[in-house]
Amino acid sequence: RPTVPTDHDRLEARARKTMSRKGFAYVAGSAGSEATARANVAAFDRWQVVPRLLVDTTERDTGVELFGRRHESPFLVAPVGVLSAAHADADLAVARGAREQRVTQVISTQACVPMERIADELAGSGHWFQLYWSSDDALAASLVARAEACGSEALVVTLDTAYLGWRPRDLDLGHLPFARGEGIAQYTSDPVFRARVAARVAARAADTAPRRTSSREGADAGSRTARPRPTPAALSTLLALSRNHPGRTRDNLTGPEPRAAVETFLEVFSRPSLTWDDLPRLRQMTSLPIVLKGILNPDDARRAVDAGVDGVYVSNHGGRQVDRSVAALDALPGVVAAVRGSGSAAPIIFDSGIRCGADAFIALALGASAVGIGRPHVYGLAVAGAAGVSEVLRNLRAELDLQMALTGCTSLADLTPDRLVHVGTVNTPPVHTRPTHPGDHP
Ligand code: HOC
Fold this sequence. Notes:
The chain is an alpha/beta fold. It is about 45% helix and about 10% strand.
């Protein structure tokens, strides 16, 4: 008897019963009207598969090579933060499930467990590291160095979260997990971050200590420069929460260190000022393959490969960031055309909306090299811990394999656009000719 339902809606319904209200709201919720999340799923309904017959499909290979290593299947565990919302064993249980299915896990910057422990749990099975490029380069470099040291095979830089999206489910519950210290384990286990927190605690202690100076002006000027200031990103989140629910944001913080850790995190987690000009600095930080995540526009995709990145990750963050965004699947063909049209063989990773093996088939046929699985594995985690994650991944692998067998495909190379027909209309982002990058025009 299966541990988890094979159908996504039933899986979600089962997971909901095991999760707290706030936990489920955080995982299931999306940006604004949640139209993006709906569009992500609906986009798959506009593609239909055209099977081929009389092909010997006795032997099938779902394997794919990514960054020099052969993967048994084209599935990746997409990075998801705050997995404690689903299960107490959080990232460690996901690692056990992923290891069992030999699926590479993309370890989240917002994990509940330090990356080194997750890597240990994966015990030789592959992992990549997902990075939010901190406003503090020393911290970003430290996270990247740790990822390299614990064996990550690629660096996935998420670019769509300079600010946290407007998420009504969380807002209405007055809930932001990070503001309570959940999902910041990569930071609190980091030496650079810990030094920042210690400095903050010390500065605050000095700020509240009786002043020794007789010059009132001098003391005030000193404390003003020492006082940490939240970035606009942190402010927008905190303001949104406190407007709806005054006073709740910091209620649960006790002790100077946790509070200072959360404040430091909110201050440094993102860098809204990033531009293409910053990429060379990232390149200098690591020799790992760099994958840019959140690409939806063909011009951005072309610019990424022109800049020498090693992979492009088409995603709209599961609909959690931009409300009424283009569906990730609708953006995929344009990105594939741009990347391949520029002569690049860089892997194109896809996530946002895959709910079953047939969905994976469609994304792969449209040109994705591999596909990330987000909410389904989290719901598996909620329902049955590591066993649930493993079973969700096993089902996806099995369904894709069967889909290939039934449609006359023996390897992923057979999954080409001519296996599909498109029904209905779609609005994809415009494909421009060069020069297209902001700033390139006179
Ligand atoms: C305070 C911002 O991936 C999500 C996460 C976003 C993490 C950014 C933290 O909730 O989608």
